[in-house]
Design brief:
The protein is built from 15 helices and 17 strands. With about 425 residues, the protein is an alpha/beta fold.
Length: about 425
């Protein structure tokens, strides 16, 4: 009994002196719970954790666009949109019509899209489309227009998906403006993804990201209190917005992922469509497996980029052999970019776990510390498991020698994939 009391007193004393100000790096032996350890990491990187937010998970494009369109209809002052692409199809035309109606009402509408993202889809916005959109009162700006020599524009694309309305509500996640998020793609099937609606103090952080990019591209100086209303206490969620801006904080996103995984005490669950992570993330996953952390990875059995799925299969097989539970989503293409750590916190955003996102592109994720959101995401993942199969040695060996060789080759090219 005396030893028990001594241990309790020792724990209390140690706990009282643990401070984020002396935080160095997350070690799995830390006495802090995983969420508290990761919060200390964020604070050590000067990434603010805002309180009293409400985060709603939007399970698929139908939920995202229905909710976002309602919020846009209620806009009073401004609507800001930043996307990798606005595909020139029916959902985009519906969005543009709605934005033009709000512009007629005097609402400021600013939209930013990536030039490469626009060129890389098979229904791009052409010059005449852009001019027509601008003629309807919408400020539409192309990020980093592709000009000669074209190779200079290959890196550091704007892959974010951010919408901010009146500085009061924001949306971020993995869903672009394209019909196939709603209807699927021929030969692949339905297109799965997850987005979020955010209210509270975290909205200002997403507004910061949009306005910084907008002002840089346009030379304007948009800002001030009109874009930052006093946030209401919207809910119980603590939220950290982690943003990757090449040249300013190039390692921030991959370090955030690695430290979140290192913080786990019980389990890590990852969904990533283009799963070819950099070394720092791979090492974190491998260490979690070595430390007997339950690692669940959901990959997609099909792909929209030639050869890349072979690399994803190969790495999935590697982690399966090391003890991970690897689920291959077979109900279409799972484009979700999410992670759950223990039952403590989650992340949702635009970041793929590949070199493109972690080394080159502009990306934004939110890390959410809220029990309800964590349970909701686990529930969504459980439903996705019903459309998945568990990867085994027997299943992998049925793949042709050519597909397996392609996987080996793709993994070798990790730095540029």
């Amino acid at each position: 009994m005396r030893d028990i009391i001594k241990n309790i007193l020792l724990f209390v004393i140690i706990s009282s002196v643990v401070s984020c100000s002396s935080f160095k790096a997350i070690e799995r032996g830390d006495i802090l719970y995983s969420d508290e350890a990761f919060k200390c990491y964020l604070q050590s990187e000067n990434i603010e954790i805002t309180q009293n937010n409400n985060v709603e998970l939007l399970n698929g494009a139908h939920e995202k666009f229905d909710d976002m369109f309602r919020a846009i209809r209620n806009a009073k002052h401004h609507i800001h949109l930043e996307y990798f692409n606005f595909r020139n199809d029916s959902i985009n035309k519906e969005l543009i019509t709605l934005l033009a109606d709000k512009a007629k009402e005097g609402v400021e509408v600013r939209a930013l899209f990536d030039a490469f993202g626009n060129m890389s889809n098979n229904k791009p916005l052409k010059k005449e489309h852009i001019e027509e959109i601008r003629s309807r009162g919408i400020e539409l700006v192309k990020f980093d227009p592709i000009t000669f020599p074209w190779i200079n524009h290959a890196t550091s694309r704007d892959h974010r998906k951010i919408v901010v309305i009146d500085g009061e509500v924001a949306y971020t996640g993995g869903i672009n403006v394209a019909d196939y998020y709603l209807t699927g793609l021929e030969g692949i099937g339905k297109w799965r993804d997850i987005h979020t609606r955010v209210e509270g103090a975290a909205v200002a952080k997403l507004q910061d990201i949009f306005l910084a990019m907008w002002n840089r591209e346009t030379g304007q100086q948009i800002g001030g209190h009109k874009y930052y209303p006093t946030p209401a206490e919207a809910g119980n969620a603590a939220v950290a917005v982690v943003d990757r801006w090449p040249g300013k904080n190039p390692k921030q996103m991959r370090q955030a992922y690695a430290n979140a995984i290192n913080a786990a005490k019980d389990s890590v669950t990852i969904i990533s469509p283009y799963f070819i992570p950099l070394k720092v993330v791979r090492k974190a996953i491998e260490k979690a497996l070595d430390d007997s952390i339950k690692v669940n990875i959901m990959l997609t059995a099909k792909g929209d980029i030639p050869l890349l799925p072979d690399g994803v299969w190969r790495l999935g097989y590697k982690y399966m052999k090391r003890g991970a539970n690897v689920y291959m989503y077979d109900g279409g293409f799972n484009h979700s970019k999410v992670m759950c750590v223990d039952d403590k916190f989650i992340t949702v955003g635009s970041t793929n776990l590949n070199s493109r996102s972690l080394r080159y592109d502009y990306e934004t994720n939110i890390f959410v510390f809220d029990n309800d959101d964590t349970r909701d995401l686990y529930d969504i993942i459980e439903e996705d498991k019903k459309e998945s199969f568990i990867l085994t040695k027997e299943i992998y060996k049925k793949r042709s020698w050519w597909r397996r060789f392609c996987g080996f080759f793709v993994v070798l090219l990790t730095p540029i994939m």
